[in-house]
Amino acid sequence: MRLSSAAKKAVIDKAKAIIVEKNGESHLNGISSRFVPVDDKWGVKFTTRGNSYMSETYTRQRRGFRLGIAPFCFGIFEYTCELVGYKGEKFLATFTCYITEIVKVLVNTYGMFYTDDVPSAFVEAIENLINMCQEKLGFRFWDYHAQNLGINENGEIIIIDWGDES
Ligand SMILES: Nc1ncnc2c1ncn2[C@@H]1O[C@H](COP(=O)(O)OP(=O)(O)OP(=O)(O)O)[C@@H](O)[C@H]1O
Ligand SMILES: [Mg+2]
Q: Which of 22, 89, 99, 143 is the most exposed place for a label (fewest CB within 10 A)?
């Protein structure tokens, strides 16, 4: 997975424009961060929870990628931009962001329905597996759910949410 620094900069520049453009939309918003596709291959994750939260998330995802269990990611950056609120008021917002590879998600977070191309029986099997793992571990945590899982190009299950609740 190699991109030249010029190609990386082009994706980051596009992401900055998209953060401003899509900020008002709730589509695919998580609790801690937002994920918005930049193009077919790359998406941007951004948060207002600050640099240390996102740096830790980014570092965990990079480590996960090296282990083969996370999408590739690059280019953590801070971005301050002017946004327009729902009453038309202008304000400045600072986001910490990084670019992540888009993978097929197992479950659509907000609709709570399965994505068209992933059979529901498969998702149910994964959810059963999650439950079995939790029983074996002897503890549960709320963010251990199928919405935080994706499928990579080899058809393997990977983790897409590397935030500290996960
Ligand atoms: N690499 C990715 N490829 C495709 N979709 C993604 C990717 N990362 C995130 N998403 C989508 O964006 C949603 C929110 O991302 P993520 O789970 O990382 O954020 P979050 O703020 O921690 O969400 P939550 O708090 O709801 O778990 C995901 O459930 C998924 O639908
Ligand atoms: Mg999540």
A: 89
